[in-house]
Amino acid sequence: MSSGFGLVVRFELRDEAAAAGFDELVARTLPEIREREAGTLAYVVHSVPDQPNVRVFYELYADRAAFDAHEQQPHTKRFLAEREQYLSGLEVTFLAAEAGKGPVPM
């Protein structure tokens, strides 16, 4: 039984101008993820109300192969290269689903 493959990424952005540039980069990247990545089950971008220069991504993939395919996409490579100019910090947490309700069997 597949439990999917997930991660949470916390981006700390340098300042308000960097946050605006990062948000524009995200806006250009998301349509490509939606249209071209069947194995990407969830890709949700969150803002943090009391921390305007923080963004948190929740990503859920059908399996590790789907994540690896996501990482090889031209739009993902562009995002990874361009995001660096906006960041002051980055934290990635990989997840293993244990229980819950969602598109991936537990």
From TrEMBL:
Residues 5-95 form the ABM domain. It is an enzyme of class 1 (oxidoreductase). One of its GO terms (molecular function) is monooxygenase activity. Keywords: Monooxygenase, Oxidoreductase. Its EC number is 1.-.-.-. This is Quinol monooxygenase. The lineage of its organism: Bacteria, Bacillati, Actinomycetota, Actinomycetes, Kitasatosporales.
